Amino acid sequence: MFRKQNILCVVCSAGGHLTEATIATASLQYPKYFVTYKLPHIQETLKSQEVYFISNPHTYLYKYPKNFFQSIWLYLKKRPAFILSTGSGMAIATCLIGKIFGSKIIFVENGSRVNLPSSTGKLLYRFSDLFIVQWEPLLKYYPKAVYGGLLV
Length: 152
Known about the structure:
By secondary structure, the protein is an alpha/beta fold. It has a single domain, classed as Glycogen Phosphorylase B (Rossmann fold, 3-Layer(aba) Sandwich). The chain contains 5 helices and 7 strands. The chain has a 7-stranded parallel β-sheet. α4 links the parallel β4 and β5. α3 (64-78) packs across α4 (92-100). The mean pLDDT is 92.
């Protein structure tokens, strides 16, 4: 039997997406871990957090299979009940794998998206259990979304 652990996986790219994710989860008194890719500032940004690194397939299609296998290995190791993402494409595999295995998916559309949705947001909107936008104009693209206001 596959049992999910009562923990939160926070998966996002390492730039502004990570800043928003750390702000969104800072006050949560809930076991969590972060999944991102390596950049020089990550060690300092997440120094007191549990962090795992996976491949960023952003502009290289051949990296998506590597990202998928890393994501499924980590997912099966940790078995989170919830997955929160602020995006970029590197988070897609983790979110879809989580959905298949019954995790609840929470997606927060990036704050830089004021009038038009992101590609990752458009894809993960239909799989998310909770979809949050930071700008009201995006509600016309995501009618079931929740307006949460700006994180940053």
